[in-house]
Design a protein that fits this description.
about 80 residues; alpha+beta
Length: about 80
């Protein structure tokens, strides 16, 4: 029973390490469209980033792109990283 609770807690923590609202705002303000979120990207950002929001979108020059929007909890702005 403890293993199940621990596993559910770990899933809850990882699921809450994305910020779709901020990621959408950042991507749209940079000209990306048709944004679809792919969830948490464990290796998509640096260790200093709190949020790792994976995405697939269409770039301003109409090319499909995949990447991660990384962001901090309080004082770190968001960055877009591409795969």
């Amino acid at each position: 029973m403890k293993k199940i609770i621990l596993m559910l807690f770990a899933i809850f923590i990882v699921a809450n390490c994305t910020d779709n609202d901020t990621a959408l705002r950042v991507l749209e303000s940079n000209g990306y469209s048709n944004v679809q979120f792919t969830g948490y990207k464990f290796f998509g950002c640096s260790k200093d980033d709190t949020y790792h929001t994976g995405f697939i979108a269409v770039s301003p020059n109409n090319k499909p792109v995949e990447g991660t929007v990384c962001g901090g909890l309080f004082f770190k702005n968001s960055t877009i990283r591409f795969e």
